[in-house]
Design a protein that fits this description.
The chain is an alpha+beta fold and 93 residues long. It has one domain (14-92). It is 28% helix and 26% strand. A four-stranded mixed β-sheet has the order 1-4-3-2. Strand 3 and strand 4 form a beta hairpin. The chain is globular.
Length: 93
Amino acid sequence: MAYRLMTPRFPLGRIVATPAVLALGLDLAAYIHRHHCGDWGDGLEEEDKQANEEALHDGTRLLSCYHVGNGRRIYIITEWDREMTSILLPAEY
């Protein structure tokens, strides 16, 4: 098995989370780290992951989706200008 070092790939800017996400009581740092390093999560289609890879070069927004247990998911979105990263539930998107 190959070892892949998780290194940051883009600026996150200011990080915010909605009250609904905070109420889940998750360790958000692990999900933020995955997003920051280009692990787009287990809830996106391959075409969405490819769009993120292109966004790293063309400066559009980045979206990750992670399953967090009990059938729940969270989205992490870094804006096109890389000044803000938001963590929210899919219903809040």
